[in-house]
Amino acid sequence: MPPAQAPLGGGGAAWRRLLLLLTVLPLTLATLAFVLQWRGGGVDDPTARWPPHAFPGMAEPARLSLPSSDCSDVLAGSSGASFPYLRGWSFPTDSGAGLGLQPKVCVQTSTSAGLEQILPWLFYHKVVGVAQFLLFVEGRAAKPNVAGVLESIPGVKVVYRTKDLEEQQASSRIWNETWLSGFFYKPCNYELFVKQSLNMEMAIVMARDHGMDWIIHLDTDELLYPGGAAEYSVRRLLSEVPHDVDMVIFPNYESSVERDNIKDPFSEVSMFKKNYDHLPKDTYFGMYKEATRGNPNYFLTYGNGKSAARIQDHLRPNGAHRWHNYAKSPNEIKLEEAAVLHYTYTKFSDLTSRRDRCGCKPTKEDVKRCFMLDFDRAAFIIASTASEEEMLRWQLFKVCGNLVSSLLPLQLANLLSMRSSHRRNPMPRAKMLLDLETCQLI
Predict the structure, then answer these.
(1) Is the pLDDT of residue 68 over 80?
(2) CATH 3.90.550 in the chain, residues?
(3) How many Cβ atoms are within 10 Å of 31's Cβ, its own excluded?
(4) For range 267-286, the mean pLDDT
(5) By C-alpha distance, which of 179, 188, 187, 185 is closest to 323?
(6) Which of 12, 164, 290, 329 is the 20 to 30 Å CA partner of 101?
(7) Does residue 226 contact residue 237 with C-beta atoms inside 8 Å?
């Protein structure tokens, strides 16, 4: 048998070239990667987008240099905590607390919300002059990845609902008094109301220890609007209150939702139904039926506002909306322009989540032991029994405020509502202009 012939010369050269290519290509790619890494190469490195120590808790916040303006005493010289997930946002940290400015204002809340709701709420109230925040947290707000961020913000004190706290509150004198006894040992909203009152009682002591002059209880779906005050400062507003006044009432305005796809209420909702206290009485009573849209009351939820109390001896809560004093009847005044903006049932999820709020049966009788307000009772029943399509129709008819505009003449609609028309997101700007019928956030 003849020996096998060697490959043709051309074929051998092709194999050699292929072998050379397979050797050189990895070396070339490795060299290119080294050069790009050494020179930066224009590659977008996600870890290089944020400055060192920009994440909360990693380092002390840097000092901010703010331009001088009429608002310099509110915002100037404050340090800012930077939050990478809210680019361009920083928190003025003292609002007068470290500059000797008076009075010092404390806001207390009880919340289980997440950062997407709490951070804009904190930022807004920092800008309008609140010096100290006392956050009583549970649920999502108490999780380490949420509470850790909140604790890193100067001027914020996070209070967890621990066993020690519950034992301390169990010995409160409130349990032996009659003013809250009608809410004891009941589920859902009644239990929350008692918990809020006990937290407010503890917050009085904590605020006094922090050197605060005024204390306000707000929920994280409420913004304090200091209308009528210089520079729209809560501190300026309360500094003008006579010294013999113990409590200041802020009437509440309620959000009037105009569409069903709201995601960020603070920046997307711009119309509010005015409180009875800020309306001409003939307008209120004359258009009451049209304004309620078939709901039980003029407002969907509460209508008695919120209040700020001067911190002094014997101060106590009087439910979530008011304060009282064991030693005297407080001298109170009601503000004519300032208000609390209440963003209630603004998102569809605010309705759908009602079904998980408590274990009550979705019947007209059983919901009475769980919810105080008629609309909350109706919302719980519809959320527990209806399909998503039925809930959406219910929300459009019962909640969405564009129906108000279609039912009322323009002049009367303007009187009943306060329009907040903003060209930009109002939260980072937080500068307000108010006339008789319009609140413009720019």
Answers:
(1) no
(2) 72-256+302-343
(3) 10
(4) 92
(5) 179
(6) 329
(7) yes
Would you list the DSSP string of 107-134? EEEEE---HHHHHHHHHHHHHTT--EEE
**Tokens read off for 418:** 């306060």
Dist CA 212 CA 413 (whole Å): 40
The CATH number of the domain covering residues in 72-256+302-343? 3.90.550
Tell me how long the chain is.
Answer: 442
User: Which two three-digit tokens encode residue 413?
Assistant: 């609609």
**What's the pTM value of the predicted model, to 2 decimals?**
0.75
Task: For residues 118 and 158, give the distance between their C-alpha atoms in angstroms, rounded to a whole number.
Answer: 12
The dihedrals phi and psi of 377, each to the nearest 5 degrees, come to -65, -45
Question: Per-residue confidence at 231, pLDDT binned at 50, 70, 90?
Answer: confident
Mean pLDDT of the chain: 80
Mean pLDDT is lowest, of 161-175, 358-372, 390-404, for: 390-404
Q: Does 358 have pLDDT greater than 70?
A: yes
Find where tokens 């490195």 sit.
Answer: 45
